[in-house]
Structures are given as C-alpha cells and as structure tokens.
Amino acid sequence: MPKIKTHKATAKRFKKTKNNKLLMRKSGQDHFNSRERGKTTRQKRRDVVMSATQAKIIKTLMPYL
C-alpha cells in the first residue's frame, strides 16, 4: 500500500508541539490593523493552540507530522 501524501499547504501553516497539540497563527494580521487596540495587535503575534475537533481534521492532512 502506498504512503499517504502530506498536504504541504497545511504543513506550512501548522506546527505540532511536544505533547502532540497543534499550534496555528491568529488570523487577521495582514492589513487594517491601525484601527485595532494595542492589546489586540499584541495578542495576534502569538500562536494559539487549536481545539481538539479542529486538530482532528488537520491531522488527516498531515499523517506523518
């Protein structure tokens, strides 16, 4: 049986931690940020741990990660 291919666009956007949790970037960092509060801008710089239901879908696209 052949290997399952990793979805490369997904692999570039998500990172797996030591305890098998998935990290993702917060959305909305590209433009129109001048109108946001400073607190919001700072919070968007951090990676966020995905929920278990979202992570289950992503793990099917990245079988070997």
TrEMBL record:
Residues 27-39 have a biased composition (Basic and acidic residues). GO terms for cellular component: ribonucleoprotein complex; ribosome. Pfam families: Ribosomal_L35p. The keyword Iron-sulfur does not apply. One of its GO terms (molecular function) is structural constituent of ribosome. GO terms for biological process: translation. Keywords: Ribonucleoprotein, Ribosomal protein. Residues 1-19 have a biased composition (Basic residues). Residues 1-49 are annotated as: Disordered. It comes from the Bacteria. Transmembrane segments: none annotated. Belongs to the bacterial ribosomal protein bL35 family. This is Large ribosomal subunit protein bL35. The gene is rpmI.
